[in-house]
Amino acid sequence: MTKNWISHVGEPDRLILAWQAPDEFKDRTRFAVGELTCEGEKVRLRYFKGSEFDSLNPGHDYNKLLSYGYQGYPGFPPNEDEHTVGVLEAFMRRLPPRSRPDFPEYERHLRIQPGLSFSDFALLSLSEAYLPSDGFSLVDPLRADVASREIILEVAGYRYYADKLDVPPPQPGDVVEIVPETDNKYDADAVAIMFKDRKIGNINRLQAKTFRIWAEQGRLKAVIDRFNGRADRPRLFVFVRVEPLKADGQPSPNHAYA
Protein backbone atom coordinates (compact mmCIF):
# COMPACT_ATOMS: atom_id res chain seq x y z
CA MET A 1 0.00 0.00 0.00
CA THR A 2 1.22 3.49 -0.86
CA LYS A 3 2.75 5.66 1.83
CA ASN A 4 2.04 8.76 -0.24
CA TRP A 5 -1.34 10.20 0.68
CA ILE A 6 -2.83 13.62 0.05
CA SER A 7 -4.36 14.41 3.42
CA HIS A 8 -4.66 18.20 3.01
CA VAL A 9 -6.95 19.00 0.08
CA GLY A 10 -6.68 22.65 -0.84
CA GLU A 11 -9.89 24.27 -2.07
CA PRO A 12 -8.69 26.46 -4.94
CA ASP A 13 -10.62 29.46 -6.19
CA ARG A 14 -8.83 29.57 -9.55
CA LEU A 15 -7.54 27.00 -12.07
CA ILE A 16 -5.62 27.71 -15.26
CA LEU A 17 -6.95 26.14 -18.44
CA ALA A 18 -3.91 24.81 -20.31
CA TRP A 19 -3.59 23.35 -23.81
CA GLN A 20 -0.87 21.40 -25.60
CA ALA A 21 -0.70 21.08 -29.37
CA PRO A 22 -1.00 17.64 -31.02
CA ASP A 23 2.25 15.66 -31.21
CA GLU A 24 2.59 16.32 -34.96
CA PHE A 25 3.61 19.92 -34.22
CA LYS A 26 6.49 18.81 -31.94
CA ASP A 27 5.83 21.60 -29.48
CA ARG A 28 5.28 20.49 -25.86
CA THR A 29 4.50 23.99 -24.61
CA ARG A 30 1.67 24.01 -22.11
CA PHE A 31 -0.13 27.15 -23.20
CA ALA A 32 -2.15 29.05 -20.59
CA VAL A 33 -5.31 29.82 -22.56
CA GLY A 34 -7.85 30.71 -19.87
CA GLU A 35 -8.96 30.33 -16.29
CA LEU A 36 -11.79 28.80 -14.32
CA THR A 37 -12.83 30.70 -11.21
CA CYS A 38 -15.09 29.44 -8.47
CA GLU A 39 -17.30 31.63 -6.29
CA GLY A 40 -19.53 29.53 -4.07
CA GLU A 41 -21.20 27.10 -6.45
CA LYS A 42 -20.67 29.29 -9.53
CA VAL A 43 -17.83 28.38 -11.89
CA ARG A 44 -16.86 30.73 -14.71
CA LEU A 45 -14.56 30.29 -17.72
CA ARG A 46 -12.65 33.26 -19.06
CA TYR A 47 -10.11 33.12 -21.89
CA PHE A 48 -6.81 35.01 -21.83
CA LYS A 49 -6.35 37.53 -24.63
CA GLY A 50 -3.99 40.26 -25.75
CA SER A 51 -1.27 41.34 -23.33
CA GLU A 52 -2.57 38.98 -20.63
CA PHE A 53 -2.05 35.99 -22.93
CA ASP A 54 1.40 37.29 -23.90
CA SER A 55 2.52 37.71 -20.28
CA LEU A 56 1.40 34.19 -19.34
CA ASN A 57 2.97 32.63 -22.45
CA PRO A 58 6.31 34.41 -22.91
CA GLY A 59 7.88 33.83 -26.30
CA HIS A 60 4.65 32.49 -27.81
CA ASP A 61 2.07 34.59 -29.61
CA TYR A 62 -1.60 33.85 -30.09
CA ASN A 63 -1.24 33.32 -33.84
CA LYS A 64 1.11 30.41 -33.20
CA LEU A 65 -1.55 28.87 -30.98
CA LEU A 66 -4.13 29.20 -33.76
CA SER A 67 -1.72 27.68 -36.29
CA TYR A 68 -1.67 24.53 -34.14
CA GLY A 69 -5.43 24.16 -34.55
CA TYR A 70 -6.53 25.67 -31.24
CA GLN A 71 -10.23 26.63 -31.24
CA GLY A 72 -11.00 27.01 -27.54
CA TYR A 73 -12.62 24.46 -25.28
CA PRO A 74 -15.47 22.62 -27.06
CA GLY A 75 -18.83 24.27 -26.44
CA PHE A 76 -17.27 27.48 -25.09
CA PRO A 77 -16.10 29.64 -28.03
CA PRO A 78 -13.16 31.92 -27.23
CA ASN A 79 -14.71 34.95 -28.96
CA GLU A 80 -17.04 35.38 -25.95
CA ASP A 81 -15.60 37.26 -22.98
CA GLU A 82 -16.92 34.89 -20.31
CA HIS A 83 -18.90 31.69 -19.97
CA THR A 84 -21.03 31.07 -16.90
CA VAL A 85 -23.48 28.32 -17.86
CA GLY A 86 -22.60 24.64 -17.56
CA VAL A 87 -18.86 25.18 -17.05
CA LEU A 88 -18.35 22.92 -14.04
CA GLU A 89 -20.55 20.22 -15.54
CA ALA A 90 -18.60 20.27 -18.81
CA PHE A 91 -15.23 19.81 -17.14
CA MET A 92 -16.48 17.23 -14.66
CA ARG A 93 -17.39 15.03 -17.64
CA ARG A 94 -13.65 14.56 -18.09
CA LEU A 95 -13.57 12.58 -14.82
CA PRO A 96 -15.26 9.40 -13.60
CA PRO A 97 -18.52 10.25 -11.80
CA ARG A 98 -18.51 9.96 -8.03
CA SER A 99 -21.43 7.51 -8.33
CA ARG A 100 -19.30 4.85 -10.01
CA PRO A 101 -18.54 1.85 -7.79
CA ASP A 102 -14.84 2.11 -8.61
CA PHE A 103 -14.58 5.85 -7.80
CA PRO A 104 -12.63 5.09 -4.57
CA GLU A 105 -10.03 3.37 -6.74
CA TYR A 106 -9.77 6.53 -8.84
CA GLU A 107 -9.22 8.55 -5.66
CA ARG A 108 -6.45 6.16 -4.62
CA HIS A 109 -4.85 6.60 -8.05
CA LEU A 110 -4.77 10.34 -7.33
CA ARG A 111 -3.31 9.53 -3.88
CA ILE A 112 -6.29 11.07 -2.10
CA GLN A 113 -6.50 9.67 1.41
CA PRO A 114 -9.69 7.63 1.89
CA GLY A 115 -12.49 9.43 3.66
CA LEU A 116 -11.56 13.00 2.73
CA SER A 117 -14.32 15.40 1.76
CA PHE A 118 -13.70 17.92 -1.01
CA SER A 119 -15.54 19.83 -3.72
CA ASP A 120 -15.80 18.98 -7.40
CA PHE A 121 -13.67 22.05 -8.15
CA ALA A 122 -10.94 20.67 -5.88
CA LEU A 123 -11.20 17.32 -7.67
CA LEU A 124 -10.55 19.08 -10.97
CA SER A 125 -7.45 20.56 -9.37
CA LEU A 126 -6.17 17.25 -7.99
CA SER A 127 -6.73 15.36 -11.24
CA GLU A 128 -5.91 18.23 -13.64
CA ALA A 129 -8.83 16.83 -15.69
CA TYR A 130 -6.26 15.63 -18.20
CA LEU A 131 -7.28 13.66 -21.27
CA PRO A 132 -4.61 12.80 -23.86
CA SER A 133 -7.17 13.04 -26.67
CA ASP A 134 -7.57 16.83 -26.74
CA GLY A 135 -4.55 18.41 -25.01
CA PHE A 136 -6.58 20.30 -22.41
CA SER A 137 -5.86 20.19 -18.68
CA LEU A 138 -6.48 22.30 -15.58
CA VAL A 139 -3.58 23.53 -13.47
CA ASP A 140 -3.77 24.83 -9.93
CA PRO A 141 -1.33 27.80 -9.79
CA LEU A 142 -1.05 27.08 -6.04
CA ARG A 143 -0.87 29.46 -3.11
CA ALA A 144 2.53 29.88 -1.52
CA ASP A 145 1.09 30.83 1.89
CA VAL A 146 -0.46 27.43 2.70
CA ALA A 147 0.44 25.97 6.09
CA SER A 148 1.18 22.55 4.58
CA ARG A 149 -0.08 20.31 1.83
CA GLU A 150 0.71 17.33 -0.38
CA ILE A 151 0.81 17.35 -4.17
CA ILE A 152 1.16 14.69 -6.84
CA LEU A 153 2.48 16.09 -10.09
CA GLU A 154 3.97 15.05 -13.41
CA VAL A 155 7.62 15.83 -14.08
CA ALA A 156 7.65 18.17 -17.08
CA GLY A 157 10.19 17.18 -19.74
CA TYR A 158 11.01 13.78 -18.24
CA ARG A 159 10.83 12.08 -21.65
CA TYR A 160 13.70 14.29 -22.88
CA TYR A 161 15.92 13.95 -19.82
CA ALA A 162 15.33 10.19 -19.37
CA ASP A 163 17.27 9.55 -22.60
CA LYS A 164 20.27 11.45 -21.23
CA LEU A 165 20.57 9.83 -17.78
CA ASP A 166 23.97 8.27 -17.10
CA VAL A 167 22.76 6.56 -13.92
CA PRO A 168 20.06 3.90 -13.41
CA PRO A 169 16.64 5.58 -13.73
CA PRO A 170 14.76 6.53 -10.56
CA GLN A 171 12.33 4.08 -9.02
CA PRO A 172 9.20 4.59 -6.91
CA GLY A 173 10.23 5.70 -3.42
CA ASP A 174 13.51 7.29 -4.53
CA VAL A 175 14.13 10.76 -3.13
CA VAL A 176 14.36 13.68 -5.54
CA GLU A 177 15.23 17.32 -4.97
CA ILE A 178 13.25 20.31 -6.17
CA VAL A 179 15.52 23.32 -6.63
CA PRO A 180 15.43 26.74 -8.32
CA GLU A 181 17.20 26.52 -11.67
CA THR A 182 19.17 29.74 -11.44
CA ASP A 183 21.12 29.16 -14.67
CA ASN A 184 18.09 28.60 -16.92
CA LYS A 185 18.49 31.21 -19.66
CA TYR A 186 14.99 30.63 -21.02
CA ASP A 187 12.96 31.00 -17.81
CA ALA A 188 14.05 33.01 -14.79
CA ASP A 189 11.43 31.25 -12.66
CA ALA A 190 12.38 27.70 -13.69
CA VAL A 191 12.47 25.01 -11.00
CA ALA A 192 14.31 21.75 -11.67
CA ILE A 193 13.69 18.25 -10.35
CA MET A 194 16.97 16.47 -9.58
CA PHE A 195 17.83 12.81 -9.02
CA LYS A 196 21.35 11.95 -7.88
CA ASP A 197 22.49 15.42 -8.99
CA ARG A 198 21.08 14.83 -12.48
CA LYS A 199 18.22 16.85 -13.85
CA ILE A 200 15.24 14.67 -14.75
CA GLY A 201 12.78 17.46 -15.58
CA ASN A 202 11.05 20.55 -14.30
CA ILE A 203 8.07 21.73 -12.35
CA ASN A 204 5.62 22.89 -15.01
CA ARG A 205 5.97 26.61 -15.58
CA LEU A 206 2.40 27.41 -14.49
CA GLN A 207 3.29 26.30 -10.95
CA ALA A 208 6.99 27.13 -10.93
CA LYS A 209 6.78 30.53 -9.19
CA THR A 210 5.08 29.02 -6.14
CA PHE A 211 7.42 26.04 -6.05
CA ARG A 212 10.38 28.40 -6.24
CA ILE A 213 9.17 30.17 -3.08
CA TRP A 214 8.70 26.85 -1.28
CA ALA A 215 12.12 25.63 -2.42
CA GLU A 216 13.84 28.80 -1.22
CA GLN A 217 12.07 28.36 2.13
CA GLY A 218 13.39 24.79 2.36
CA ARG A 219 9.88 23.38 2.74
CA LEU A 220 9.88 20.70 0.02
CA LYS A 221 10.30 16.94 0.38
CA ALA A 222 9.68 14.78 -2.68
CA VAL A 223 9.87 11.17 -3.81
CA ILE A 224 9.18 9.29 -7.02
CA ASP A 225 5.58 8.09 -6.91
CA ARG A 226 4.99 6.19 -10.16
CA PHE A 227 5.63 5.84 -13.86
CA ASN A 228 2.92 5.96 -16.47
CA GLY A 229 2.52 6.34 -20.21
CA ARG A 230 4.19 4.27 -22.94
CA ALA A 231 7.74 3.10 -23.53
CA ASP A 232 8.19 5.76 -26.22
CA ARG A 233 6.44 8.40 -24.15
CA PRO A 234 7.19 7.77 -20.47
CA ARG A 235 5.50 9.90 -17.83
CA LEU A 236 6.95 10.28 -14.34
CA PHE A 237 5.04 11.48 -11.28
CA VAL A 238 6.47 12.73 -8.00
CA PHE A 239 4.80 13.07 -4.63
CA VAL A 240 5.63 16.32 -2.86
CA ARG A 241 5.13 17.38 0.73
CA VAL A 242 5.14 21.08 1.55
CA GLU A 243 6.37 21.21 5.14
CA PRO A 244 4.93 23.78 7.58
CA LEU A 245 7.04 26.71 8.65
CA LYS A 246 7.81 27.16 12.33
CA ALA A 247 7.20 30.43 14.12
CA ASP A 248 10.78 31.53 13.39
CA GLY A 249 10.22 31.14 9.65
CA GLN A 250 12.27 27.95 9.38
CA PRO A 251 10.88 24.66 8.03
CA SER A 252 9.72 22.15 10.61
CA PRO A 253 11.94 19.11 11.26
CA ASN A 254 11.76 16.49 8.52
CA HIS A 255 9.22 13.76 8.99
CA ALA A 256 9.18 10.40 7.28
CA TYR A 257 7.01 9.31 4.40
CA ALA A 258 4.63 7.12 6.36
Written description of the protein model:
The chain has 258 residues and is α+β, with helices and mostly antiparallel strands. The chain has 7 helices and 11 strands. A hairpin with a 2-residue loop joins strand 2 (31-39) and strand 3 (42-47). The longest helix is centred in the last third of the chain and has 9 residues, at 208-216. The chain is globular and about 50 Å long. The model is unreliable at 254-258 (pLDDT under 50).
Low-confidence stretches: 254-258
- Helix fraction, binned, reads 10-25%
Number of strands: 11
Mean pLDDT: 91
Count of runs of 4 or more consecutive helical residues: 7
Structural class: alpha+beta
Shape: globular
The major beta sheet can be summarized as:
6 strands, antiparallel
Q: What order do the strands of the largest sheet run in, or round the barrel if closed?
A: 6-11-10-7-8-9
Strand-residue proportion: 25-35%
N-to-C SSE series? EEEHHEHHHEEHEEEHEE
Number of domains: 2
Tell me the span between the first and last alpha carbons. 11 Å
What radius of gyration results from the CA coordinates? 18 Å
Ordered list of secondary-structure elements with their pairings:
Elements (H helix, E strand, L loop, with lengths): L13 E6 L11 E9 L2 E6 L2 H7 L5 H6 L14 E2 L3 H6 L10 H7 L10 H8 L8 E4 L9 E6 L3 H5 L12 E6 L10 E5 L2 E5 L5 H9 L3 E11 L2 E10 L16
Antiparallel strand pairs: 1-2, 1-5, 2-3, 3-4, 6-11, 7-8, 7-10, 8-9, 10-11
Task: Give a short synopsis of this structure.
The chain has seven helices and eleven strands. With 258 residues, it is α+β, with helices and mostly antiparallel strands. It folds into two domains: 141 residues, no CATH class; 116 residues, 2-Layer Sandwich (Alpha-Beta Plaits).
